[in-house]
Write a structure and sequence with these properties.
The protein has 440 residues and is an alpha/beta fold. The chain has two domains: 10-312, Metallo-dependent phosphatases (Purple Acid Phosphatase, chain A, domain 2, 4-Layer Sandwich); 319-439, Double Stranded RNA Binding Domain, CATH 3.30.160. Helix content is 30%, strand content 22%. The chain is built from eleven helices and 19 strands. An eight-stranded mixed β-sheet has the order 1-2-16-15-3-6-7-8. The protein has a six-stranded mixed β-sheet with strand order 9-10-11-12-14-13. It has a three-stranded parallel β-sheet with strand order 17-18-19, with helices on one face. It is globular.
């Protein structure tokens, strides 16, 4: 069944506005079912170091806040749609936060569903999977047989509340056998079709399970991938390097709600209120400054379409990205400092727009920050387009570049024809993708 193209209505929920999924979808049951409240979030990136700064205090504050919200809002289940950790080898304190989240939600009688993302290690998530199942936590580290990925989320009273096709980040090797002689375009098409088939099989298994239960449970679909039209940020890694760039929304089965992860900006997909990225709860890059981070409350009540209510996440650590001339910097820094305190200074990215070269720019900016609740983590000078195309910025660092950008700059120094360059780029993407799969 195709999704309707109509825009969602808005309905009042308490003193907030909630968005309702399109009302002209045909819902399979008319018998009322008890209500179910799901909290959808993703991309926590436990263990992330942000330009040398630990996020441990922020993540601890986030867990404390989340537990308060689940109690105050009577949340039945929490779903984290991938990238629980920032790396495949998370530090010990990140694992402690992970375990704390599981334990505290179990004590609160809230079901927890954790999906593996492209940053997560299958082995790390899988090592404690059976143990955490004893605490009511469902961990899905990698793609499995479609019928094995259908899980029942329970309400606080222990009764079934929703069926979830718990699909994590899908690696090409999970669903596809590589064929020799395929072009990049053919590989992309084959992977897209394999992922579509995987979703269809999982959804069919959920329908069969719902029929066996003879209970009008909503069906939720998950995913950790880029969809067509999604808006990304600089902290998002491309996950199907050299293969699938974006998955079409129309290829998803007609689930009641589709909970997505990987994109850090909260957004609807294709204008549909029930197909959502929750976005990351923390600001993970300077180009995300100014975004209101959020989680999504999804309410299922009987045969009605679900209502989706954004739940704003507090700003546990202020960040600011300033672009100005050196003359404008004192005023801009003073304005940014108003958001900080001595105990919690504002983390800054400062880009100075000047025509003249300033070899002491970092020292000048640091001097302007003295005495203010500010920490300048990145200072750089903007260059004209022509100059930037020839030489990388003076203060640009590797943390600002992806592997392919570094490879492209190195390749540009060689005298190689276009066809050869394209072939080398394709081989490089395949190599990076293979390294990522091996690390997982």
């Amino acid at each position: 069944m195709d999704y309707p193209a109509s825009h969602p209505d808005c309905i009042a929920t308490g003193n907030r506005l909630a968005e309702r999924a399109p009302s002209n979808i045909e819902w399979p049951f008319c018998t009322a079912a008890p209500p179910m409240r799901l909290l959808h979030t993703s991309d926590w990136h436990l263990g992330q170091h942000f330009l040398g700064k630990s996020r441990q205090a922020e993540h601890q504050a986030l867990i404390d806040w989340l537990l308060q919200q689940t109690k105050a809002l009577a949340v039945d289940a929490v779903l984290i749609a991938g990238d629980i950790f920032d790396t495949g080898t998370p530090p010990s304190y990140a694992r402690e936060l992970y375990n704390q989240l599981v334990e505290r939600l179990h004590d609160a009688k809230v079901t927890l569903l954790l999906l593996g993302g492209n940053h997560d290690s299958v082995a790390v998530l899988g090592e404690s999977r059976s143990l955490l199942a004893r605490l009511g936590t469902i961990v899905v580290p990698c793609a499995e047989a479609p019928e094995a990925q259908v899980h029942c989320l329970k309400r606080r009273d222990g009764t079934p509340g929703a069926l979830v096709c718990a699909v994590p980040f899908i690696r090409p090797r999970d669903v596809l056998l590589s064929q020799p002689g395929q072009s990049a375009y053919e590989k992309q098409g084959a992977l897209q079709e394999a992922i579509r088939h995987h979703y269809a099989a999982a959804y069919a298994a959920a329908l069969a399970q719902r029929e066996a239960l003879a209970t009008p449970l909503p069906i939720v679909l998950t995913g950790h991938l880029t969809t067509v039209g999604a808006s990304t940020s600089e902290s998002v890694r491309e996950i199907y390097v050299g293969a699938l760039e974006a998955f079409p929304t129309s290829a998803f089965p007609p689930a009641d709600y589709i909970a997505l992860g990987h994109i850090h900006r909260p957004q609807r997909v294709g204008g549909l209120a029930h197909v959502r990225y929750s976005g990351s709860p923390l600001t993970l890059s300077f180009d995300e400054c100014g975004q209101q981070k959020e989680m999504l409350l999804v309410d299922f009540a009987g045969a009605a379409p679900p209502t989706v209510t954004p739940l704003p996440v507090p700003d546990f650590q202020p960040l600011a990205a300033l672009t100005c001339t050196l003359a404008q910097a004192p005023a801009a820094l003073a304005e940014a400092a108003a958001r900080g305190t001595p105990a919690r200074p504002v983390w800054l990215e400062v880009t100075i727009v000047e025509d003249d070269y300033l070899n002491d720019l970092p020292a000048r900016i640091q001097a302007l920050c003295d005495g203010l609740p500010l920490e300048a983590l990145r200072i750089r000078r903007a260059r004209g387009q022509r100059e930037a195309a020839l030489v990388s910025p003076q203060l640009e660092t590797l943390d600002e570049l992806g592997p392919e950008a570094v490879f492209a700059r190195r390749l540009a120094l060689e005298e190689i024809d276009d066809a050869r360059q394209q072939a080398l780029h394709e081989r490089f993407r395949e190599t990076v993708a293979g390294m990522g799969e091996a690390a997982a």
